[in-house]
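Write out this protein's structure.
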Amino acid sequence: MKYMIINIINDLWPTIFICSMIMIVLRISYIIRNKIKFDVFKELFMFCFIIYIMCLFYVVTFQDIDSKLISGYNLVPFREMFRYKIGSRLFFKNVIGNLIMFVPFGFFTSYIMRPAKLKYVFIITIIISFTIEITQTQIGRVFDIDDVLLNILGGILGFLIFNILYKIYKKMFGDR
């Protein structure tokens, strides 16, 4: 998993660098022009979210173009998930990877939608996950309902992590 993240960053660094410079220059110009109070934490958080989206886009569109199913889709829940031996490399890549891949999505979405409600994060995660899976069928990849289920679970986990950390933050620092 660690090497996969390093490979993604190695492949994407030029794109991340150029897009980052564009975003930073435009955002600073917007803040100065409109005399908006600069909140370092909020700006860094949103910047990280955009980088996460670029990495997510890369993972779901440019990796593993050869399909795992001949038919091009799996609509039977848990079929692909239980195909892998628990603890194997493929289990971590396909099952744990799809789960972990959407934890940041649930976390960032919860931050943006503060106070976050589970049903909204859940609905947004479903929409984005289905969008990704449908798009993948158009680029030579597979629609897999198991991926959708794991993405949703990851989004919910991200929501829960955000809310736990947010409650701790509010106890320690109040409502800043």
